[in-house]
Design a protein that fits this description.
Layout (H helix, E strand, L loop, with lengths): L3 E7 L2 E7 L2 E6 L4 E5 L5 E5 L5 E6 L5 E5 L4 E5 L4 E6 L8 E6 L5 E5 L5 E6 L5 E8 L2 E6 L5 E6 L4 E7 L5 E8 L6 E6 L5 E5 L4 E5 L5 E6 L4 E8 L5 E7 L13 E7 L9
Antiparallel strand pairs: 1-24, 2-3, 3-4, 4-5, 6-7, 7-8, 8-9, 10-11, 11-12, 12-13, 14-15, 15-16, 16-17, 18-19, 19-20, 20-21, 22-23, 23-24
Length: about 270
């Protein structure tokens, strides 16, 4: 599979989500959220004063945005951006990726290198820690049956699965895949239950089945793999965000991130 460049000109792309015919993604250092269509045309939602990362859509179509360093959650209703939650009291480090279930509950990773947590933000905007002792929780997906969540633990170099209880808690922690080729960042789930993961320091995107078998690799050359999402018609397109450095702070003021796309044989599934 050879990816095709789709869009460029942003600083550090993260948190891609496919929603209503567009790919939405954060520009962490550009203080913005962008959308791209299948032709690569970009639009921009400014979020001045914030470093956006994880994104997710509630059932009413409103967009939730994790603001990393100030540990706030923002909501965009199509017209305005407002702060709906301050997680400094429950999140011990910066916020990262996010997944929102079909009940509107947002699961947000807190990216401590050890002792990271996942915070659940309920539709009423109350926050609860639902998982702890994670090694830099990053990308997250929810399976189509709504019964399991898979989380990328970057510094742990593993994918970890949880059962989602009826009330939205996480339990039955187990290894989905361990000993990965690199620290996993953003992930996407396909219809066969495999996970596409951005392997940052390995400079590639990999499709990983439960147990750790890698069935496909997309080599990004000198570029760093950051995050991915399955979307497009029938969710048959894998969108790839890459950059020139794995550490965002080194890229302040640049416009070197890129969005690529590649057709895949197995479509996306679950949320996001």
């Amino acid at each position: 599979m050879i990816p095709e460049p789709l869009a460029k000109g942003f600083c550090f792309g993260e948190g891609p989500r496919w929603f209503e015919g567009l790919l939405w993604f954060s520009d962490m250092l550009g203080e913005a959220v962008h959308t791209a269509d299948m032709r690569g045309s970009l639009t921009t939602l400014p979020v001045p004063g914030h470093s956006p990362s994880g994104l997710g859509f509630r059932p009413d179509g409103s967009l939730l945005i994790a603001s990393t360093e100030d540990r706030q959650v923002l909501r965009y209703d199509g017209e305005t951006v407002v702060t709906v939650a301050d997680l400094t009291g429950v999140a011990p480090a910066s916020l990262g990726d996010m997944v929102v279930d079909d009940a509107g509950r947002a699961y947000i990773g807190c990216q401590a290198f050890s002792g990271g947590v996942i915070v659940r933000l309920d539709p009423g905007d109350s926050a609860t820690v639902v998982a702890d002792d994670l090694d830099f929780p990053n990308g997250m997906v929810i399976t189509p049956d709504r019964k399991a969540m898979i989380v990328a633990e970057s510094t742990g170099r593993r994918l970890t699965a949880f059962t989602i209880a009826d009330e939205g808690g996480l339990c039955d922690r187990r290894i989905f895949a361990d000993g990965l080729d690199g620290p996993p960042d953003g992930i996407a789930l396909d219809a066969e239950g495999a996970v596409w993961a951005a392997m940052t320091l390995a400079h590639q995107f990999e499709r990983i089945t439960e147990g750790g078998v890698v069935t496909d690799r997309i080599d990004m050359g000198e570029r760093v793999a950051i995050a991915c999402a399955l979307g497009g018609p029938q969710r048959g397109t894998l969108f790839l965000l890459s950059s020139t450095d794995a550490y965002p702070k080194r890229l302040v003021g640049t416009r070197l991130s890129r969005l690529d796309a590649v057709a895949v044989g197995i479509p996306g599934a679950g949320r996001p």
